[in-house]
Specification:
- This protein is α+β, with helices and mostly antiparallel strands.
- The protein has three domains: 18-54, no CATH class; 82-155; 189-312, Alpha-Beta Complex (endopeptidase fold (from Nostoc punctiforme)), CATH 3.90.1720.10.
- The chain contains five helices and eleven strands.
- The protein has helices at 62-168, 172-184, 196-207, 225-235, 244-248; strands spanning 18-25, 30-39, 47-54, 212-213, 222-223, 252-254, 264-269, 272-281, 284-290, 294-299, 307-310.
- Strand 9 (284-290) and strand 10 (294-299) form a beta hairpin.
- Helix 1 (62-168) packs antiparallel against helix 2 (172-184).
- The longest helix has 107 residues, at 62-168.
- Residues 15-45 and 152-189 have low confidence and may be disordered.
Amino acid sequence: MSHTAHIPSHRKPRRSASKLALRAGVAGGVLGTIAVAGAAGPASAEPVTETIEMPTLGSLDTAGLASAVAASAEASQQEALDQSLESQENAALQKAAKEAKKAKAEADRKAEAERAEKARAEAEAKAKAEQERKDAEERASRDRARTQLSTTSTSDNSSSGSNVSDSGSGSSSSSGSSDSGSTTSGSNNETQAPSGSAAAIVAFARAQVGDAYVRGGTGPNSWDCSGLVQAAYAAAGIDLPRISYDQSSMGTSVSLSNLQPGDILYWGSRSGSYHVAIYVGGGKYVGAQNSSTGVVEHSLDWDTPSGAVRIL
């Protein structure tokens, strides 16, 4: 018996035979098969074959890959389109906001202009109504003055007719009374014609009767009150200030019962008059009254002045 003991090996038995079979169907897109064959036991054992099926490259669907690529490209294109649309929408929103802001500013400007125009129209209407009211008051005052003057004239004519009858009957005392009355009744019944500078002033003033009244007017066809007085005195070679209160401050004061042709009549105070005219004799004056009447000749009773000054 051998002294050498047989020690069995713990290594796995070597496979003495193995076979690998690979069948690929790349072109046909079929599954390939890898066959691995090996011996499970010692070299003398029968070969054992194990078959494992694995996907091959051919198993990928070419049409599906193309579809996936196309879908990715379409998604990228859609994203780019969405971004472009979003940019356009933002630009449109900004443009709309600017246009809305501009439209609002224009609307505000028009509204302000309309308010200003309405206020101006209301102010003009108010001023017109006030002027019409004043004109109506002046017309009413003139009508009352005319009525009073007409009544006075009728009474004077009746008295004059009675005196003439008495004179015609040979009453020397009545005649004397009539003559005395014509010379002592005061300036309202004055019949003596003016002469010299006074005549030139009166003639110029009466020649403008009927001309228009314009504030600040100095002729030749439109006047205001002080412009007419200044021009009338200029016709006689006398220089006067342009403003009414300066004109009424010149010369010497005279009473309304002692007027002479050419005297300057004023309304208001002497140093603060607001209207002037020229006494032309016979209890009348010529003045540029207002825009409704223009230059007129009126009785002192029509609008009694506050006072008078004498320059001549």
